[in-house]
Design brief:
- By secondary structure, the protein is α/β, with parallel strands linked by helices.
- It has 2 domains: 134 residues, Immunoglobulin-like; 300 residues, TIM Barrel (Alpha-Beta Barrel), CATH 3.20.20.
- Helices cover 24% and strands 22% of the residues.
- It has 11 helices and 20 strands.
- The strands form 4 sheets. An 8-stranded parallel barrel has the order 13-14-15-16-17-18-19-20, surrounded by 5 helices. Strands 1, 2, 3, 5 and 8 form a 5-stranded antiparallel β-sheet that branches. The protein has a 5-stranded antiparallel β-sheet with strand order 6-7-4-9-10, with no helix packed on it.
- Strand 16, helix 5 and strand 17 form a beta-alpha-beta unit.
- Helix 3 runs parallel beside helix 4 and helix 4 runs parallel beside helix 5.
- It binds ligand IDC.
- Ligand IDC binds next to strand 18.
Length: 465
């Protein structure tokens, strides 16, 4: 659609770290554009475009075209559909954000590889002329590593409230996870054990304790597919997961829906089940801001190419209902970034999943996985958004003694890299990884520290802090 009369204001925020630069002249026009850089790092930056509808009637679609100089390309974008021709990138709505009411606006973001700022900008075919947002030196700093620095907030953050009230809809920003104001967030929380085995561990009182005493940001719902799980009763398990998402939501926690494949390790074995399940849960929770989808717990014995293929079939099913949710993809070798099968994260960097707003899962068990795994996480975190969707303080069997030294080394690393985590498990299983002593769940005594195991006490302290 051609819009010669449009008075759409396209505002491109690109907050320059050191100096805020204007990239476009400011002709007198009803349409404006301004570039700042939200955050920068060695060889890239994050930009944001806001399309404002300054007219008195609704806009039914929009298109923004940005041309970049040689050496700079857009590697990732969110809240938009991206197409490229030569050095010009065309950004159009993802569906839900096509329509803009009078006076309203919509935003999308992108990650540029390279330091060149756009040399041309068009909004609905017309030059993005207008004002810059000059002057105000940004408080953000140039990060020495490729990590994304925290961008300046444009609104005053609420200081009180639940994790979801404070952070809202999350999205991937560069290699980090950001809240809806573009600030890097690290979510800390607990995973259930298999919900088929420990239903009495996930009750109103246990979740109250997790949310209000532990101050957990995150509740991971581990829905096994095999082992008496989803495959035995798809409707029943879908309903149990939905109910637990509602319980987390009522308490202001983020809910991570874990499609807990484990054996067999090839996610393709469960592809049709995954499509059915995620179509249903994403439809149910599309309007929520607090749902994160983890589509394959621990692929093993399969190539990265096979995992990627699975992901590229499941992600669109979720996106069709819930376009802005963060989706997490398991990695090779029981989500070890390939390390447990002799590989490493380079295979993902070389062949990333073709989707935006995604992260990759990394799992560890502190007594089994030590320095070489930590080194790989540190290396991978420079170029991949990572989430530790599961980890234990013990061995990979789920049992044995807590390895405090290795656990603390992991916590320090994850805190430094701002990588979120969920601990295996908030349950009273008779194994070292469980946070609660056996019998706790049937007794219903979750409050305080009396029913915590050594692992539970360690985790409660970490999460509360
Ligand atoms: C373990 C449980 C254990 C259960 C076993 C089989 O702790 O009680 O008998 O699964 O289902 C993982 C898996 C997770 C494992 C955990 C510990 O994601 O399902 O749970 N682990 O072995 N990956 C590495 C370790």
């Amino acid at each position: 659609m051609k819009r010669r009369t449009a008075t759409i204001l396209a505002t491109v925020f690109a907050v320059a770290a050191a100096s805020t630069a204007a990239f476009f002249a400011l002709p007198a026009s009803a349409e404006t554009a301004a570039f700042t850089v939200q955050s920068t790092w060695n060889n890239g930056y994050q930009g944001q475009v806001t399309v404002n509808n300054n007219t008195s009637s609704q806009i039914n679609t929009w298109k923004v075209e940005l041309t970049f100089p040689a050496g700079t390309s857009v590697t990732q974008s969110w809240n938009t559909t991206q197409a490229v021709s030569g050095s010009t990138y065309t950004f159009t709505p993802v569906g839900w954000n096509a329509t803009i009411a009078p006076g309203a606006s919509t935003s999308f973001g992108f990650i540029a590889s390279g330091t060149g700022r756009p040399t041309s900008c068009l909004v609905n075919g017309q030059a993005c002329t207008g004002t810059t947002t000059p002057g105000s030196p940004s408080p953000s700093v140039v990060s020495p590593s490729p990590s994304v620095s925290v961008s300046p907030s444009t609104s005053t953050p609420p200081v009180n409230g639940t994790p979801v009230q404070v952070n809202g809809q999350l999205r991937v920003c560069g290699t980090k996870l950001c809240n809806e104001r573009g600030q890097v967030v690290q979510l800390k929380g607990m995973s259930t054990h298999g919900i088929q085995w420990f239903p009495n561990c996930y009750t109103d009182s246990s979740l109250d304790v997790l949310a209000k005493e532990w101050n957990a940001d995150l509740f991971r719902i581990a829905m096994y597919v095999q082992e008496q799980g989803y495959e035995t009763d798809p409707a029943g398990f879908t309903s149990r997961v939905n109910n637990l998402v509602e319980e987390a939501t009522e308490r202001g926690m983020y809910a991570m829906i874990d499609f807990h494949i484990l054996t067999p390790g090839d996610p393709a074995f469960n592809l049709e089940r995954a499509k059915t399940f995620f179509a249903q849960v994403s439809a149910r929770h599309a309007a929520k801001k607090n749902v994160i989808y983890e589509i394959a717990n621990e692929p093993n014995g399969v190539s990265w190419a096979q995992i990627k293929n699975y992901a590229e079939q499941v992600i669109p099913v979720i996106r069709a209902n819930d376009p802005d949710a963060v989706i997490i993809i398991g990695s090779r070798g029981w989500s070890s970034l390939g390390v447990s099968e002799g590989g490493n994260s380079s295979e993902i960097v070389a062949n990333p999943v073709n989707a935006s707003n995604i992260m990759y899962a990394f799992h560890y068990y502190a007594a089994s996985h030590k320095d070489n795994y930590r080194a790989e996480v540190e290396r991978a975190a420079a170029s991949l958004p990572l989430f530790v969707t599961e980890f234990g303080t013990v061995t990979y069997t789920g049992g044995g003694a807590v390895d405090t030294a290795s656990s603390n080394a992991w916590f320090d690393l994850l805190d430094r890299l701002k990588i979120g985590y969920a601990n295996w498990t908030y349950s009273d299983a008779n194994e070292g990884s469980a946070a609660l002593k056996p019998g706790t769940c049937s007794a219903g005594s979750f409050a305080g520290t009396g029913s915590l195991t050594e692992s539970g006490a360690l985790l409660r302290n970490r999460i509360r802090a």
